[in-house]
Design a protein that fits this description.
This protein is α/β, with parallel strands linked by helices and about 230 residues long. It has one domain: Alpha-Beta Barrel (TIM Barrel), CATH 3.20.20. It contains 9 helices and 8 strands. The protein has an 8-stranded parallel sheet.
């Protein structure tokens, strides 16, 4: 199946999921996860009109970004080490994986020095799996309030990863849990502006994520070919 055909198929499935849940297609954005594909494939993704690019390792993303001259909007979707922050902030507009104060402090320091602001998602381990990164849901109010002192970090929403399930429907409680957490945080007014974004849903389960309120989908294998994985 060609890239064009894969994009068309994904679009049709997103549209059906929106119709099933009474949502507008315009509410949902797709991050094309290109972390396992070449610069050439990433360029093809951009040329096909998908301008949101997701990567999780600076070592592989950096050369692609340079080769592509910074085309597109780049999302860092993996665990970010503090020592790599200085090289990430000039390439990635969005960080989907903020889950500790030490990382936020380093982001603030480097962004302040560079005179830029980065949009961040707080990663929440809704499923409670030991293998997953992220803060616990009950830690979210205090953690997010603590980020208010960082003027160069714009907290726009929450991110989570659901367990891989053979039956995607089984991921619904995780996605619903993140949406309900965001709504609770907004009711508590933990941020100056309401949290609007939910980064959740990958190739195996994105339709359930759409039905439960996802605004950013992180899709790799469905767009760039079979055999890829996502973060």
């Amino acid at each position: 199946m060609s890239l064009k055909e894969r994009i068309k198929q994904v679009e049709e499935r997103v549209q059906r999921a929106c119709e099933a849940s009474g949502r507008s297609r315009e509410e949902i954005k797709i991050v094309a996860v290109t972390k396992y594909v070449s610069t050439e494939m990433t360029a093809a993704v951009l040329e096909a009109g998908l301008d949101q690019i997701g990567e999780n390792r600076l070592e592989t993303a950096g050369p692609k970004w340079e080769d592509l001259e910074g085309r597109g909007t780049w999302h860092f979707i993996g665990s970010l080490q503090t020592r790599k922050v200085k090289d990430v902030i000039n390439k990635f507009k969005y960080i989907h994986s903020v889950d500790r104060i030490s990382l936020a402090e380093e982001l603030e320091k480097r962004c302040s020095a560079a005179g830029i602001t980065v949009k961040i998602f707080v990663q929440v381990n809704v499923s409670g799996e030991d293998s997953k990164s992220g803060i616990r849901p009950e830690e979210a109010p205090e953690f997010i309030r603590s980020l208010s002192r960082f003027s160069h970090l714009e907290v726009i929403g929450l991110m989570t990863m659901a367990p891989y399930e053979a039956e995607p429907e089984e991921t619904r409680p995780v996605f619903r849990g993140l949406r309900e957490l965001r709504d609770k945080l907004n009711e508590q007014q933990v941020t100056r502006e309401p949290l609007t974004e939910l980064s959740m849903g990958m190739s195996n389960d994105f339709e359930i994520a759409v039905q439960e309120g996802a605004t950013w989908l992180r899709l790799g294998s469905l767009l760039v070919g079979k055999g890829e994985e996502e973060s």
